[in-house]
Write a structure and sequence with these properties.
Radius of gyration: 20 Å
Distance between the termini: 24 Å
Shape: elongated
Strand content: under 5%
Length: 72
């Protein structure tokens, strides 16, 4: 099963939800419903994240890890 994140305009939200509710739970399941928040707004809402980023920008480049040494 795949998970999708959709941004749905308020003008069609009710109709879209109605449509999804006509599928069985084995076909489609609504995991979460929330108001859209931009990535920037979301990150700024995390306590201390802005200060952490400002501090990280002050670190010398030599303290960084080269891309070829990152473990993905």
């Amino acid at each position: 099963m795949k998970t999708l994140t959709l941004k749905i305009d308020d003008s069609v939200s009710e109709k879209f939800t109605w449509l999804l509710e006509h599928f069985s739970l084995s076909e489609v399941k609504i995991l979460e419903q929330s108001e859209y928040v931009s990535d920037d707004d979301y990150l700024r809402s995390i306590n201390g994240i802005v200060q952490s980023l400002h501090e990280a920008k002050k670190e010398p480049t030599e303290n960084g890890v080269p891309l070829d040494r990152l473990e993905w």
